Prior knowledge:
160 residues, mainly alpha
Amino acid sequence: MNEHTIRRPAISTKAVIWSGLxxxxxxxxxxxxxxxMFLGGSPWGPPRMIAAIAMGEGVLPPPAxxxxxxxxxxxxxxxxxxxxxxxxxxxxxxxxxxxxxxxxGGVFGLVVYLVMFYGMTAVFPWFEAARNWVSIFVHxxxxxxxxxxxxxxxxxxxxx
Length: 160
């Protein structure tokens, strides 16, 4: 390295995994709590919408009841997407403070919401039914948490 070379921070795999899993878990729990609390829907509606990506529209409510297979498929899809989004976000967040990463993460979460609920409805038309303030809120929370956890964990990684 010469004196004009700028060393850019590397992406932390550990931070990607932790931020994706934590933000993904909080997202899923919040949505399953807030949909019945504020929108009068079933807590099992959001997992069914996610599972329908792989299982088809036949799993969509009604009835929006508990089904272990649907919950398992939804969880796999959801956490894989959370980890992919965490990896993408890591390119934006690397080297940032937890505060700035959280702020940028909130915007990232909103962009993810817009892509999923407006861009992807051509492929998954049932997402249109979930265009509401709860979905917007949980996506922003996902992004804020994603950014904060990523920067916090990445800041504690020891480079040797």
